[in-house]
Amino acid sequence: MTDLINSPLLIVLLAVVAFLYASVGHGGASGYLALMSLFAFPVTFMKPTALVLNILVSAISFYFFYREKKFEWKLFYPFAITSVPFSFLGGMIAIETHYYKIALGTVLVFAVARLLGLFGNEKTVRKPLNIPLALFIGALIGFLSGLLGIGGGIILSPVILLLGWANIKQTAAVSALFIFVNSVSGLFGFMSKGGTLPSSSLTLIMAALVGGIFGAYYGSRKFNTLTLRTVLSFVLGIAILKLYTT
Fold it and tell me: If you count DSSP H runs as helices and E runs as strands, how many of each does the chain have, helices first?
């Protein structure tokens, strides 16, 4: 395990993942899980580690987007009200490895589509938030977040954009805080059932912090990373194939 964690290739890729996800207001859990899957980490290590990294990077991302005055509380709270308790519930559930891989692979498809901008275009006219629908979406994404060890922003942000509830920067700010609260809730749910945090993931934490700080800084200032996102999408695509075929 130590050799895997200290792999230079893993550390570099993890920092790149954190950079790219933070640039769009995400914590990067789906990317971290994909990398750990490629490097054959056990599922028991993957879920809590991804949640910890997610908490740190999403907090950094939110700070930078909030500082640029992109955050709107009224857009955030309807999702959070239902997502937090359902994320805790999902975190309490231990899913069988085979089904975990299938579910994670499906979420990674969303991640690739989001990174490539396949459903991330802004609507020209902003529509009012539908609160009952937002509450339902929050609960659904929250449960999935806790179950898989992700923050849910990779699903929430395209939904907000597709429904025309916010522009890209506002969506990034809301997603960052959404990811943070869901990851914290999911981690508490995981630990409440006897789960423990890996003590050997300090190297991965440092790599994610460095990548997250630079990604959030540039992302909040209209930084375009299309080429790098395409490369990352290719890596995630390989992870998806691996999850579905092993």
Answer: 11, 0
